[in-house]
Design goal:
Layout: E1 5-6, H1 9-24, E2 32-38, H2 42-58, E3 61-67, H3 73-85, E4 91-94, H4 104-110, H5 122-129, H6 138-149, E5 158-162, H7 169-177, E6 184-188, H8 195-200, E7 204-207, E8 225-228, E9 231-234, E10 237-240, E11 252-253, H9 260-278
Parallel strand pairs: 1-11, 2-3, 2-4, 5-6, 5-7, 7-8, 8-11
Antiparallel strand pairs: 9-10
Helix pairs in contact: 1-9, 2-9, 6-7, 6-9
Length: 279
């Protein structure tokens, strides 16, 4: 069997950013992306740094609020209020995960839904359920866009999503089963019986479980498409959910890093510009 097609998210994201930069030329007001980062998590800092680099590259203004790990929930809510009221801020995100002691749901609920660049506000998730216009969660959007731009159709395909989190698994299941995508979706989790059998029978496998090398070639159907979302810090460095040996039998696979991550950031920029266009 020939080697798997590598779904290069970094190259794809660069193309999208170039398209977005062209779109910006037709906007009357330059959009601004805000970020709220709490604590010292190195992964979160790296990710937020990347978002601001992307903004500079495309031509989007950026507003950055960094709070210490000792910040209280009230401190975070104050930062949210500031960005809700800031005219120069088109939309913004609160970087997750938040430190212990801060209630994530209360934080997300405080975001102005019309400035919710991550698409994770309960109102926008409700709009997703109803298939109404709203910012879509960035990682699910990035996965679908990566497949579309590599001419991989999902219509009628059996898709297994491993993980039921609110940032990837659950919204991705809704987006993939929408009429415009038309996939048949199974969401697998810790309560699933015979998970390996479900994976083996799937045309597309999307791993968002956060366990290093959880998916191996012995549980993948030859010729399937495999998307690696999860990331784990190990003694050997950062590891994805998908073992490298999966590339030996898959038709296509997203790398880690360089696959879904850049696409997630590109979709965040797209959300900001779409919010600005509809303002």
């Amino acid at each position: 069997m020939s080697p798997a097609q590598i779904l290069n998210g970094k190259a794809c994201a660069e193309t999208i950013k170039s398209e977005l930069a062209d779109k910006l030329k037709n906007l009357k007001v330059k959009p601004g992306l805000g970020t709220i980062l709490v604590g010292d998590d190195p992964g979160s800092h790296s990710y937020v740094n990347g978002k601001h680099r992307d903004c500079a590259q495309v031509g989007i203004n950026s507003i950055r609020i960094d709070l210490p790990a000792t910040a209280s929930q009230s401190d975070v809510l104050k930062a949210i209020s500031d960005l809700n009221n800031a005219k120069e801020c088109t939309g913004y995100i609160v970087q997750l995960p938040l430190p212990e002691g801060i209630e994530t749901n209360k934080i997300l609920e405080a975001i102005d839904p019309d400035k919710d660049a991550d698409g994770l506000h309960p109102i926008n998730l409700g709009r997703l359920v109803l298939n109404q216009k709203a910012p879509r969660p960035c990682t699910p959007s990035g996965i679908i866009e990566l497949l579309n731009r590599n001419n991989i159709s999902l219509s009628g395909k059996d898709v297994a999503i491993i993980g039921r989190g609110t940032t990837v698994g659950r919204p991705l299941g809704l987006m993939l089963s929408a009429r415009e995508v038309n996939a048949t979706v199974t969401i697998l989790h810790t309560g699933s019986k015979d998970m390996n059998a479900h994976i083996k029978n799937s045309d597309v496998v999307i791993a968002a479980v956060g366990k290093a090398h959880f998916v191996t070639k012995d549980i993948i159907k030859p010729g399937s498409v495999v998307i690696d979302v999860g990331i784990t810090r190990t003694e050997q460095g950062l590891q994805g959910d998908v073992h490298p040996n999966v590339a030996e039998i898959a038709a296509a696979i997203s790398p880690m890093p360089g696959g879904v991550g850049p696409m997630t950031r590109a979709m965040l920029l797209r959300n900001i510009i779409e919010i600005a266009e509809s303002a």
